[in-house]
Amino acid sequence: MNRRNVLQTLGAASMAAVLPVDMLAGSALKKTKFRFCLNTSTISGQKLGIVKYIEIAAAAGYDGIEIWLPDLNAYLKDGGSITALAQKVKDAGITVEDAIAFAPWMVEDDAQRAGGFKQLEEEMNLLAQLGCRRIAAPPAGVKKDPPLDLFKAGERYKQALDLGRKTGVMPQLEFWGASGTLFHLGQALAVAAAANDPDARLLPDIYHLFRGGSGFDGLRLLRGETVEIFHFNDFVNSKPVAEQTDADRIYPGDGDAPIEGVVQLLKEMGGTKVISLELFNRDYWKQDALLVAKTGLQKMRALV
């Protein structure tokens, strides 16, 4: 190459390093797609059962549903069939996007942790029969003292991911804002990094980001594939943070959370994002469940 060609090549490389991707890739730029999901906690106070939850999610217009393992286990204990439930989901035209579970896979006690992994695998195998590809993996059972060893937690999350590949149901690392253990986005990022696994995924939540003091700018560190599901809700600043509980969650867009900014960050990530309405509001539990589900979906669509 002559001197002019060298300079031209270096100039092109420098421009590629600073220009926005969409200016270089044009129409090839992948844009974020959103799927809307109903976490059944939002209408759990009405105590209608998992079959009715599926019907309501479909009737309200959601793409998918996020179920709770206790509800699924109650259905099976009462004589329900997993095959029949899977057909119910298929007939409803929705998907089971994720399941909320509480296996103690991250705890320090060896025997308890072994039981936790056994429970996790059993739940994964059960969910696979429903066509569900994800399961929440929170710090269930982890004590506040001693402080969580993030490196050990990463090793254990790696084990959970191995089980996910074995069963086809991948664990989404969830942090709880008020847990006192894994409560901060920074901790969750450290655990996911310590796992050193390409399938590591985080499950953020508007309320937990607020309650645990994470804030929202840290979400800029996440790549598109790192987040598949995001729990949507809102909060008000008029009540002290430390006094707020899950029951204080309100419809997204009705409070003080910077949700428009969060939505913009999700749009910039690319890929497919499942935004799931997860509320525990006692006032909503007193209302018609279908009305609550429709109202939540309408508010999420307006934000997106």
UniProtKB/TrEMBL annotation:
UniProt xrefs under InterPro entries: IolE/XylAMocC-like, Xyl_isomerase-like_sf, Xyl_isomerase-like_TIM-brl
Gene3D superfamilies recorded: Divalent-metal-dependent TIM barrel enzymes (3.20.20.150)
One family name in Pfam for this protein: AP_endonuc_2
Ranges where the Xylose isomerase-like TIM barrel domain occurs: 55-301
Molecular-function GO term, any one: isomerase activity
Keywords: Isomerase
Keyword check for Isomerase: yes
Name of the protein in question: Xylose isomerase domain-containing protein TIM barrel
Source organism: Haliscomenobacter hydrossis (strain ATCC 27775 / DSM 1100 / LMG 10767 / O)
